[in-house]
Design goal:
- This protein has about 325 residues and is an alpha/beta fold.
- The chain has a single domain (about 5-315), classed as TIM Barrel (Alpha-Beta Barrel).
- The protein contains nine helices and twelve strands.
- The protein has helices at about 45-50, 70-80, 105-115, 145-160, 185-195, 205-215, 215-225, 260-270, 290-315, and strands at about 35-40, 60, 85-90, 120-125, 125-130, 135-140, 165-170, 200, 230-235, 240, 245-250, 275-280.
- The strands form three sheets. Strands 1-2-3-4-7-8-9-12 form an eight-stranded parallel beta barrel. A two-stranded antiparallel sheet has the order 5-6. The protein has a two-stranded antiparallel sheet with strand order 10-11.
- The chain binds fe (ii) ion.
- Fe (ii) ion binds near residues 169, 202, 233, 235 and 280.
Length: about 325
């Protein structure tokens, strides 16, 4: 479909969903995202993208911004979709919520999936609505057995309704629950194992959460079910401090990716090989060329890994 899609890197990403149970009647949608870097598609860049057709692996959009019948967003996304693979990223399903999923929201998601045939659909391990009240934040869940069962039921329902495997994103968190009986990595592992969904690994979220809770980010990264990663997110954070004066990082998506996050990303590539990588920027959005340059840094790292792998094969290495 796209000149960009044809430039996929050679190499191998870990088999998506390896070791996970199959999901009956669900296609492996995420497997077709190219092993390249992509960027979030912003309305202020619609015309620029169409005019310049940048060589980028894919675009990602927030599903909720397209839950209208018509208008300019659909006009431009439809035209851009003709040339690029698409990742559809949900922010409003409230998978961690206490109540049942909003079936009308699911219907709207299903309609978007039919309309744009995205290569990937993803959502967050979080909740954002309760009893008909909607919040602007992605709020954390306790890591306990009742929540685990509920999240698995909700993901089963999403995958059944959309008829495809979804990716679940690890959250950025600022507080933890005393009632938690599992670690975040244990929780995610079991969700993936029980539902067959994949992992959207947000490397910035790993760094933000670990810093806020005083944990080693690299150790947490290696505890995650990396074999099930279908997409990586990279983003920038803001620095703050809590009431006690300790460092507090905010997942702001309003600045370039920090060097510490780039370092963790290098570890991910070393472990997995090339993997679809999205540069997220939702606030203080710069010019398209600036976003493309940042995606270019990720793309260079993916290409360098593929080259190292090729040379290793030539020399008989592994
Ligand atoms: Fe993310």
């Amino acid at each position: 479909m796209s000149n960009a899609a044809s430039h996929t890197l050679s190499g191998s990403v870990a088999a998506f969903g390896a070791g996970a149970p199959g999901v009956v009647g669900v296609s492996d949608g995420a497997a077709s995202l190219p092993w390249r870097a992509g960027i979030g598609l912003k309305p202020q860049h619609f015309r620029d993208v169409l005019a310049t057709r940048p060589d980028i692996g894919f675009f990602e959009v927030h599903a909720e911004n397209y839950m209208v019948d018509g208008g300019p967003f659909h006009h431009y996304l439809g035209r851009i979709r003709e040339h690029y693979p698409l990742s559809l990223h949900g922010v409003g399903l409230s998978i961690g919520g206490e109540g049942a999923l909003d079936e009308s929201h699911l219907d709207r998601l299903a309609a978007l999936v039919r309309r744009y045939e995205p290569a990937s659909f993803s959502e967050h391990l979080a909740w954002s609505s309760h009893g008909g009240t909607f919040f602007n934040d992605l709020l954390p869940v306790p890591y306990d057995r009742p929540t685990l069962d509920r999240v698995c039921r909700h993901i089963d329902r999403v995958q059944e309704r959309l008829r495809r495997r979804m990716l679940l994103e690890n959250p950025s968190t600022y507080v933890e629950f005393e009632s938690s009986t599992l670690s975040e990595t244990q929780f995610l592992r079991e969700v993936l194992q029980r539902t067959g969904c994949g992992l959207l690994l947000d490397v910035n979220n790993v760094y933000v959460s670990c810093t806020n809770h005083g944990r080693d980010a690299l150790a947490c990264l290696h505890e995650l079910p990396l074999a099930s990663v279908g997409e990586v997110h990279l983003a920038g954070f803001a620095r703050d401090q809590d009431a006690a004066g300790a460092p507090l990082l905010i997942d702001s998506h309003g600045s370039p990716v920090d060097d510490a996050v780039w370092g963790l990303y290098a570890q991910v590539i070393d472990r997995l090989g090339p993997v679809p990588t999205l540069l997220e920027r939702d606030n203080d959005v710069p010019a398209l060329s600036t976003l493309l340059a940042e995606a270019g840094r990720a793309e260079d790292m993916l290409t360098a890994h593929a080259e190292r792998r090729r040379c290793g094969t030539c020399w008989g290495g592994s």
